[in-house]
Design a protein that fits this description.
By secondary structure, the chain is of the alpha/beta class. The protein contains 14 helices and twelve strands. β8 (about 205-210), α11 and β9 (about 235) form a beta-alpha-beta unit.
Amino acid sequence: MTDPRANRFVRSHLKTRHLVLLVELGRHRSILHAAQAANLTQPAASKLLGELEHALGVPLFERLPRGVQPTRYGEVMIRRAGAALAEMDAAHQEVMELLSGLSGRVAVGSVMTPSSGLVPEAVQRLKQEHSKVQVAITVDTSKILIQRLREGQLDLVIGRILDSESAAELNFEPLTDEPHSLVVRAGHPLLERQGLTLTDLAREGWILPPPGSILRDRITALFLSQGLDQPQETVETISLPVISKLLIGTDMLAPLPEEMVQPYLDTGLLAVLPFELGLRMDAYGIVTRKQHQLSPGAEALLQTLREVAWQRYGRRK
């Protein structure tokens, strides 16, 4: 049941310029700089912020000697304001698409593995049928992608939902999990070693995702569970071109799904170490926002992703 107080707030107090100001305050953490970005004077921006805080009855920002810091209430309003503005941008795009045929722009986020196979294949098929649709692809960790999805910056994500707060707002269609192997260059000295142990591997150079990612956490837990220190020689990146170049040109190793580097394995540039990591990541899947109507272009990409996923993994909606 809709809260009548919420209706009064939205209909009587909230204006588009409030939303724009909230987004810019979240971006700049400064009333002066946010006002400039929103094409407002600083007094006008301060007045708008005061109106919002008065209407809500809570402080949205803490005033600091240099700038402002959002409170927990402010963080909610910034996120929701960004999503609301993104919805209106999407509405405008959808109207234009209806006028000119299927076109417009679709923003999709992906974690590493599907970005190397599933997503490019789906985009290629989409473009064959709807050449005017522009697709923007972002590759990052699930945490960052889900945040951008909730803020309305992405239309859909191929990744994982990592917290219950996000889960309440999102739909998740599982696709597949990611068994990881240790990948090295062809001819790596360890390929000839028998009885490799984690102690042996800890002395090697590792290519790892940044801290905070699921894989990094599980690699850390793997070493800790064996009473071992973490590898000292590391490079942190999630860029596949960087990873592959480092693997081919050095004796470093990387925990990767074989699917992600299959072309390099097929051509003999890379190889898989005979060591069972025992790492399987939680299933990734297609993530969309609940109660959000995708644009025709985004809906077409979603359906194409489902078709390609079914052919690859045997799952479909």
